[in-house]
Amino acid sequence: MLPLLVAVLADRPTAGVPAALGAMFAGINDRPGGRRSSVSRVGVPALAGAAGLLIGSLLPAVGPAEAAVFVLPVLLGVLGVVAGALSSTGPVASACGTQLLVAAVVGAGMPLPESGGERALLFLAGAGWALFLRLVLPSRRRTAGGPYRYDGEREAVASVYAAVAELLRAAGGTRAPARRAALTAALDQAQDALSGPRLRRYASSAAERRLHAQYTAALPLAEAATALAWSGEPLPGRVAEGPLRLARAVRTGSSCGPLPAPVRSGAGLRALDDALLAAAEAFDRRAGQSLRTARRRPGLVPLLRRAFGPAGREYGFRVALCCGVSAAVALGLDHEHWYWMPATAVFLVKPDLGPLVSRVLSRAAGTVVGAAVFAGFFALVAGVSAAGVSVAGPLVAVAAVAVCGTLIPVATRHFAAQTAVVTVLVLSLVLLAGEPQAAWGRVVESLTACAIVLLAGHLPLPGQRGHRVRDAVDTAVAAAHRYLRHVLVHPQDGPERGALRRDAYRSLAVARAALDLSAAELPPVAGRTAAFEEVAGALERLVDTTTACAVHLHDPDAALPPSHAERIAAQLADLDAAHRASARSGVLV
Predict the structure, then answer these.
(1) What distance, in Å, lies between the first and last C-alpha atoms of the chain?
(2) Closest among 79, 60, 81 to 71, alpha carbons compared
(3) Mean pLDDT computed over every residue of the chain
(4) Is 220 exposed, middle or buried (0-12, 13-18, 19+ CB in 10 A)?
(5) Separation between Cα atoms, residue 52 and residue 58, nearest integer Å
(6) The pLDDT of residue 140
(7) Are 253 and 143 a contacting pair, CB within 8 Å?
(8) What pLDDT score was predicted for residue 198?
(9) Cα separation of 483 and 477, whole Å?
(10) Of the candidates 9, 10, 11, 24, which has an alpha carbon nearest to the alpha carbon of residue 428?
């Protein structure tokens, strides 16, 4: 927490508070992965947070001061609609929307002498410092495979080959569906790591070009492994050795060495062997060709259309309701730290942190533990000071913030642990801002916000019922139809087929995650989307069968086997029937 320490040493502790908040959010938003992808994962939400602080500092000046209890909740609610709608378009957008709204609440409620512009710049300084450390420090899993700045990308690509090997081992068993889902997740992570923001359109260094070539070589392997798992027959143990050797080669930067003897007794095994040989050639080329980034990104207009479509409006209205009501309650009760309640509500209503009830319980437990640790620690410090030992007050708070900042990357693994760490950090920042200790007030206000979110999260909104799941499922259905149509019409177009296959499986994973999250909610929420479980199951079977057809049709002289054609027809009928049944159930409008 260097910016905070500099501010305290310069006798401007309040200036360090926005910087520490920026660094805290940067630590929460960062995840394991490539360094370049962390620029968008951390940097873009930091810009949104700075804008939120600037907007929040201007909100109290809107309208007369005596009407703040009415005006501020309405303004925060309007901002919540926009932030929530934008949050529905993806994980980075979700972090941006949450950070924008939380920072606006803090900017409106935390009494700091700095102007709004100064707060925004200090917030960016804190986030920028955290991002700088993320980019320049070697990772914990340092390998010998090339420049350390590609450690995250290299590990992501190696995980794809390892996931292919696990799927081949699981073929013919009950673990095959889970292994296929794990392969999809590994491909998604590698795709994100390699398609991070860049100054050039093409990969610029030999090491980066080689990683792109290794990722591209893994796509036919993943296709062949999926087709083999779809057949439901166990495979010889040695077929997994080739992908495992390639995974080790990616991690170490060495050559893949000799591959196991081929097994070419069927179309799937022949495709696997051909993909292994092509991958070995790609690995032996030390400097691959210039490759474009691996992920297609939607334009601004489609993103805005999705944000303000039914799913975005549903989430936006729920965020606005939670934020506005909690702000009105806190202001009406004349709480000194009124901004805690709406800020807590915004974090709680964020959908990608788990089921709502689980989030609420974890938040309540984490807040109690964090407040107890904070109160105990500073009571101990006060006792030491009373005993005649000089303890510098601001430096103790800085030390607490530094320890919490170090723990955030570990604490993000569980929402309760993250809440406990953030509670200690925020209470320490409140002290540095010149406000009195309020550990147990934090508990009361957080529990009140939990109750508000629990009620608002299950409150049926007029015309808003389960659109988030429906939107994800409809997107996956459209992607599956595009993939199937291309395989049947243009089976030899490998690059386009690979891109459509990635789109289909990625959309399917998003739909399945949305369904699983909805199913874990309480019955009033889970019941609205239960009918789409059959749609998702039919969709998974159709996409896997399409991949098996693609492997068979890759040979120019091959024709689609009658058994495959029959299964495609049956699965299309099942998908259509499941879709019509979900519409007839009346769970959605």
Answers:
(1) 49
(2) 60
(3) 81
(4) buried
(5) 10
(6) 58
(7) yes
(8) 55
(9) 10
(10) 24
Query: Distance between CA atoms of 83 and 78, rounded to whole angstroms?
Result: 9
Residues 6+ apart with CB under 8 A from 183: 160, 163, 164, 166, 167, 222, 225, 226
Which bin fits 253, alpha (ψ -120 to 50), beta or left (φ > 0)? left
Q: How far apart are CA 118 and CA 113, in angstroms?
A: 10
Category of 463 on φ-ψ map: left (φ > 0), alpha (ψ -120 to 50) or beta: left
* 103, 59 contact by CB (below 8 A): no
Question: What residues pair up with 292 in beta bridges, in sequence order?
Answer: 202
For position 288, what pLDDT does the model report?
A: 45
Which residue in the block uniquely carries the two structure tokens 């569906």? 177
Q: How many residues does the chain have?
A: 589
Given a contact cutoff of 8 angstroms between Cβ atoms, the answer to whether 402 and 456 are in contact is: no
- pLDDT tens, residue by residue, 300-338: 677 777 777 777 788 888 888 889 999 999 888 877 778
Residues in the chain with pLDDT values less than 50: 199-201, 287-294, 384-391, 463-464, 586-589
In 313-407, which ranges are E strands?
A: none
Specify the residue for token string 């997107």. Answer: 475
* Contact by Cβ (8 Å): 166, 221: no
Cβ proximity of 160 and 197 under 8 Å: no
CA-only gyration radius of the chain, Å = 26
Give the 3-state secondary structure of residue 405.
helix
Confidence (pLDDT) at 390 = 40
pLDDT value of residue 104: 93
Non-local CB neighbours of 469 within 8 Å, separated by 6+ positions: 511, 514, 515, 518, 528, 529, 532
Residue 544 · residue 167 · CB < 8 Å: no
Quick one: pLDDT at residue 199? 42
pLDDT tens digits, one per residue of 39-79: 888 889 999 999 999 999 988 866 555 566 778 889 999 99
Full DSSP string of 15-77: HHHHHHHHHHHHHHH--SS-HHHHIIIIIHHHHHHHHHHHHHHHGGGSS-GGGHHHHHHHHHH
Q: Confirm if 251 and 145 have CB atoms less than 8 A apart.
A: yes
By C-alpha distance, which of 508, 509, 528 is closest to 518? 528
Q: Give me the pLDDT at residue 546, please.
A: 93
Checking 5-13 for CB contacts under 8 A at 24+ apart, the result is 5/398, 5/402, 8/394, 8/395, 8/398, 8/432, 13/394, 13/432, 13/433, 13/434
Q: Could you tell me the two tokens for 265? A: 């007794």
pTM above 0.85, yes or no: no
Query: What single-letter amino acid sits at 288?
Result: G
CA–CA dist 515, 480 (Å, integer): 17
pLDDT at 286: 53
